[in-house]
Specification:
Layout (H helix, E strand, L loop, with lengths): L18 E2 L5 E2 L5 H14 L12 H8 L3 H13 L3 E2 L7 E2 L3 H6 L13
Antiparallel strand pairs: 1-2, 3-4
């Protein structure tokens, strides 16, 4: 049993997409519910079922469809937002982002999250 207030460190995610353990060894990423939702939405975008400007299903729809908590559905959308596949802002419905900005990034890696520096 875990002592109250004691948290396990979150393992880092490697460039290959697998979770690393806190001791440096790597293990395959588990098929968690938010990953499954993100994978399904990513596939819908890739095959053209969802195109630029199309709204993603609402958090309530994802929650009901996948039988998950709202936080889990939000996490899946946050993953896609971090990847640049969707645009979302607080209080607005997430939409499929314009893919042209991804081509401009080239090999520079993912966009920086958070506020811009000085």
């Amino acid at each position: 049993m875990k002592a109250p207030g004691v948290r396990r460190p979150i393992p880092p995610i490697s460039s290959e997409g697998s979770l690393g353990s806190t001791d440096g060894s790597e293990q395959p990423a588990p098929d968690s519910p938010y990953q499954r939702i993100a994978t399904d939405l990513r596939a819908a975008i890739a095959c053209g079922a969802l195109t630029t400007g199309d709204p993603l299903p609402t958090i309530d729809t994802l929650r009901e469809r996948y039988k998950v908590a709202a936080g889990t559905a939000n996490c899946a959308v946050a993953v896609l937002k971090a990847e640049g596949l969707v645009a979302a802002s607080r209080g607005k419905r997430a939409v499929v982002a314009d893919p042209s900005h991804l081509e401009d990034q080239g090999s520079s890696g993912p966009r920086r999250l958070g506020r811009p520096g000085p």
